[in-house]
Amino acid sequence: MLSRHLSRPGYRLAFASVLFCSVVIALGAFTRLVDAGLGCPDWPLCYGHLWAPLAEADIQAANEAWPDFPVDHSITWPEMVHRYVAAILGFMVLGLWWITFRNRHLPGQPIKLPILIGLVIVLQAAFGAWTVTLKLWPQVVTAHLLGGFTTFTLLWLLTLRYSGWQPRQLIQTRGLSLRLGLIVLVMTVIQIALGGWVSSNYAALACPDFPTCQGYWVYPYGYDVGFDFNQQVGPNYLGGQLDVEGRAAIHYVHRVGALVLTVLTLLFAWQALRAGLRRLAAVMVGLLAVQIALGIINVVYAIPLWAATAHNGVAALFLLSVVTLLYRIYREVSYGK
Q1: What are the sequence ranges of the domains in the chain?
Q2: 254 contacts 291 by C-beta, under 8 angstroms
Q3: Active-site residue among 56, 79, 245, 332?
């Protein structure tokens, strides 16, 4: 798929950054799922330390300074590992900036995309800080999740650009609707945002049955509460602040979104299959099937840690599959084939 002989300077670092970003996303999901988002109540340090207070005197001082957040090493390490790995990713993006500047005069060298990635990384750092200082305010937590997925996607696009990937075969673009593909992409982003809203409001177990939600095929309550985006800044949102009905409404909408996305994806995959893009279509549908299975497992088995973490990771991979297919179509059209 990737033509290495056409690769430009920065390809290897960009690809490594994609892999590293996937680790950051997985660590972020793990941190949320083990309730370690406030494992360190300050930022960027942890109780004023580079790692966490270990000596008894330091622990006592930390507990006195943050009485609402006593030191618990079982949740400090996931938070700090996530922070440090994210920091390493930031330095990798700085490396991409340097490569971009050094090779800015080469034909076809991406300029705007590395700059955009750097700006998103800076914004992500701010969201990471606000996630802690605003005590897991759902709006910021969801934005932080979307920022991570955006970084992942942009790094993958940069990798494709650096690789010099050229279409190796003609496809029948007449049978492909770029508009439908863009609708699938937008719906994927909306569904990821809904998943983030479910997670940040601790609504994953609000509908413990499947396929119904608390016995309802169409859940009738709590939408005004569940989708009130004016939640106050100040309370500690660890564990969530919404009532059961509000959480169930969020969960139900996420399920409906999954159904809509499934139908749209299958239509787009069918078009891609007819156009000759069998592998890309198969990967996209395969990831969708795995994601649906993980979603059902999370409900039926009450959010096993492995399944919930994988659900987050597969969502990111599904997003990349949609973006890759759209990029393939774009390359075909842009070369006038």
Answers
A1: 1-166, 169-337
A2: no
A3: 79
